[in-house]
């Protein structure tokens, strides 16, 4: 088993979870207002020694239309989707082509994201058939939760993640032993609910109180109120650093970090700056016989090969394999593929997904 070594020298761009002083309106850093203790320093990056894992690149994991969700059409910078019984028309930068379906089909949308920055909240949505209310019931493979029209054009679920959720629930059920799962940047908790329903003991971490609140509501909606899920509102890096110090480990770790985010105490998350350190922590949180670790990135400047090489570096010397590729949504009718994000995942030895 590879022994990690701390790098003796701090790299010039070593990441920091330190809360940075906010810039004032004129761009000048504000002076410290009180004598709070200095923020916890981040651990150094680690050097991992060991053989490269078996690997698979350029994988495409596809999510097809179901009764719960369908990508109906895409084109001209937009996509038309069905979430449960609600048809949604939203912007989609990857849809460079022309729509396949006639305008009359697009006109059936119940909700259209207008992106009108003059408006706040649900006001950025238009409801041509009348206001539907802020939320509505949704499901993934029998796990209930609810959608919401957010001002960021999201609706509370990233349906292409279903490819990982299916793999994860298959592996949890096949493990036939207690499974501990950590869902970092967990958002509205659908992955946490899917993991818990399959039998895992779940720790869900997100920096946003609102997202945690929504996730808790989803737990009730999914009828999983008795499932063992810990909801933790904290900066994901800080939480992992603490878990490493406590010596806790997990069989499944999911991380879907945004390009940019903030922890509850203003900790800054920058994908390109912090993801290597985050993976060092994730490696230290691996159970003795881990099932899987899934890193997803919607950060456009990244390449799936960049994720792949980082995973190879950090998981060096472990058993199992690294699989890397893209998540796509297959348009209903089976023709077009819409790319949404890239991923790299470690699959434990003997785990069949
Ligand atoms: C699910 S992720 C990314 C979603 C989607 N893949 C994307 O890129 O738009 C977003 C979640 O990360 C959370 N988040 C942002 N910064 C965080 C931080 N420093 N620690 C923990 N969670 C954070 C947000 O609150 C949000 O719920």
UniProtKB/TrEMBL annotation:
Q: What is its EC number?
A: 2.1.1.-
What SUPFAM superfamilies does the record tag this protein with? Answer: S-adenosyl-L-methionine-dependent methyltransferases
Kindly indicate whether the keyword Transferase belongs to this entry.
yes
Keyword Methyltransferase among UniProt keywords = yes
Molecular function per GO = methyltransferase activity
Q: Which UniProt keywords apply?
A: Methyltransferase, Transferase
What biological-process GO terms show up in the record? Answer: methylation
Q: What is the recorded name of this protein?
A: Class I SAM-dependent methyltransferase
């Amino acid at each position: 088993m590879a022994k990690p070594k701390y790098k003796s020298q701090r790299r010039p761009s070593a990441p920091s979870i330190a809360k940075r002083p906010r810039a004032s309106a004129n761009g000048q850093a504000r002076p410290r207002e009180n004598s709070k203790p200095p923020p916890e320093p981040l651990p150094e990056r680690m050097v991992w020694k060991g053989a490269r894992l078996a690997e698979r690149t350029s994988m495409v994991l596809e999510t097809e239309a179901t009764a719960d969700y369908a990508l109906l059409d895409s084109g001209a910078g937009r996509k038309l989707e069905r979430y449960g019984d609600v048809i949604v028309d939203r912007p989609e930068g990857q849809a460079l082509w022309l729509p396949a379906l006639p305008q009359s089909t697009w006109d059936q949308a119940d909700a259209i994201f207008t992106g009108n920055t003059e408006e706040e909240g649900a006001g950025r949505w238009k409801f041509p058939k009348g206001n539907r209310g802020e939320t509505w019931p949704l499901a993934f493979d029998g796990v209930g939760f609810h959608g919401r029209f957010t001002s960021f054009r999201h609706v509370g679920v990233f349906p292409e993640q279903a490819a990982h959720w299916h793999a994860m629930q298959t592996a949890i059920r096949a493990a036939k032993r207690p499974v501990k799962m950590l869902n970092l940047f967990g958002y509205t908790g659908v992955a946490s609910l899917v993991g818990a329903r399959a039998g895992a003991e779940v720790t869900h971490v997100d920096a946003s109180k609102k997202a945690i609140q929504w996730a808790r509501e989803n737990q009730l909606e999914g009828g999983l109120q008795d499932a063992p899920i810990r909801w933790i509102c904290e900066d994901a890096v800080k939480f992992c650093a603490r878990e490493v110090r406590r010596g806790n480990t997990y069989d499944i770790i999911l991380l879907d970090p945004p390009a940019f985010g903030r922890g509850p105490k203003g900790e800054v998350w920058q994908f390109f700056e912090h993801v290597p350190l985050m993976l060092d922590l994730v490696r230290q949180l691996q159970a003795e016989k881990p099932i899987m670790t899934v890193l997803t990135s919607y950060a456009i400047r990244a390449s799936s090969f960049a994720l792949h090489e980082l995973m190879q570096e950090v998981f060096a010397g472990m058993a199992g394999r690294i699989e890397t590729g893209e998540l796509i949504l297959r348009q209903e009718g089976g023709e077009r593929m819409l790319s949404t994000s890239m991923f790299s995942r470690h699959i434990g030895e003997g785990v069949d997904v």
